[in-house]
């Protein structure tokens, strides 16, 4: 005897309803996986339980990319609708879709922060881990790039400072050399000025001039001895003078 057709209506028993939800959810996820593999289709499945618990499935491409494709297609269809009432109705239908997308994005952010990981399956956790690893690789790559740029900038500044230091050293050496040359030049000039401005030798004091001999008195005479002409004992008559006799004797002795 074959299985009878199940009547589609809400199951009143809470436990039976939870068991049926778990079984049908597993079968639905299995069918979604099968159609994605067999038909090479992008499948996205979102299921909320009566308690508000989220269950989802997506193919190798992320859920976000599938939803973006769906939104683009829905937007194009809305643009093709000429009727304004239908366009307004489509916007009213778009609101819950956007709210669902916001909820998914918020949940993904919480998952990236390590929160609410219990509802995720093994495949979802592996996909989340892969995304985090990819993000870490990008972050490390960017960090290494910034470190490399900072090191290059520091090396460039070090080279510029070294060049400035060399220039300052050359200027200091030139200043020292000019100071030494100026000191030597001043020393040479000081020696020349000292030799040219030496005080004259001290001359002995001049003897005061002898006072003029007093005039000889009339009748005085003196004797001159040893003339070259051989005249001896020549008696010369002195002119009249008032010189005393003792001075005449002194003059004679000196001559």
TrEMBL record:
Keywords: Coiled coil, DNA-binding, Nucleus, Transcription, Transcription regulation. GO terms for cellular component: nucleus. SMART domains: MADS. Residues 1-61 form the MADS-box domain. PROSITE patterns: K_BOX (PS51297), MADS_BOX_1 (PS00350), MADS_BOX_2 (PS50066). Residues 192-217 are annotated as: Disordered. The keyword Cytoplasm does not apply. Residues 88-178 form the K-box domain. Pfam families: K-box, SRF-TF. It is found in: Nucleus. Signal peptide: none annotated. GO terms for molecular function: DNA-binding transcription factor activity; protein dimerization activity; RNA polymerase II transcription regulatory region sequence-specific DNA binding. InterPro entries: MADS-box/MEF2_TF (IPR050142), MEF2-like_N (IPR033896), TF_Kbox (IPR002487), TF_MADSbox (IPR002100), TF_MADSbox_sf (IPR036879). Residues 125-178 form a coiled coil. Its main location: nucleus. Gene3D superfamilies: Transcription factor, MADS-box. It comes from the Eukaryota. This is Truncated transcription factor CAULIFLOWER A-like. It comes from Populus euphratica (Euphrates poplar).
């Amino acid at each position: 005897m074959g299985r009878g057709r199940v009547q589609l209506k809400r199951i009143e028993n809470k436990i039976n309803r939870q068991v049926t939800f778990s079984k049908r959810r597993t079968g639905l996820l299995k069918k979604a996986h099968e159609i994605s593999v067999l038909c090479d289709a992008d499948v996205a499945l979102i299921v909320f339980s009566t308690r508000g618990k989220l269950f989802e499935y997506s193919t190798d491409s992320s859920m976000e990319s599938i939803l973006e494709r769906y939104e683009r297609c829905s937007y194009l269809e809305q643009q093709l609708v000429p009727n304004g009432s239908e366009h307004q109705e489509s916007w009213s239908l778009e609101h819950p879709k956007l709210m669902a997308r916001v909820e998914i994005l918020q949940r993904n952010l919480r998952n990236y922060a390590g929160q609410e990981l219990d509802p995720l399956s093994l495949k979802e956790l592996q996909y989340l881990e892969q995304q985090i690893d990819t993000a870490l690789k990008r972050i490390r790559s960017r960090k290494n790039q910034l470190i490399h740029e900072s090191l290059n900038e520091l090396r460039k500044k070090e080279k510029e400072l070294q060049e400035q230091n060399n220039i300052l050293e050359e200027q200091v050496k030139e200043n020292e050399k000019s100071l030494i040359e100026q000191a030597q030049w001043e020393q040479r000039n000081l020696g020349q000025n000292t030799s040219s401005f030496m005080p004259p030798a001290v001359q002995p004091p001049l003897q005061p001039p002898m006072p003029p001999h007093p005039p000889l008195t009339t009748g005085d005479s003196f004797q001159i001895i040893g003339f070259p002409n051989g005249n001896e004992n020549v008696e010369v008559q002195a002119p009249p003078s008032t010189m005393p006799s003792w001075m005449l004797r002194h003059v004679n002795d000196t001559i």
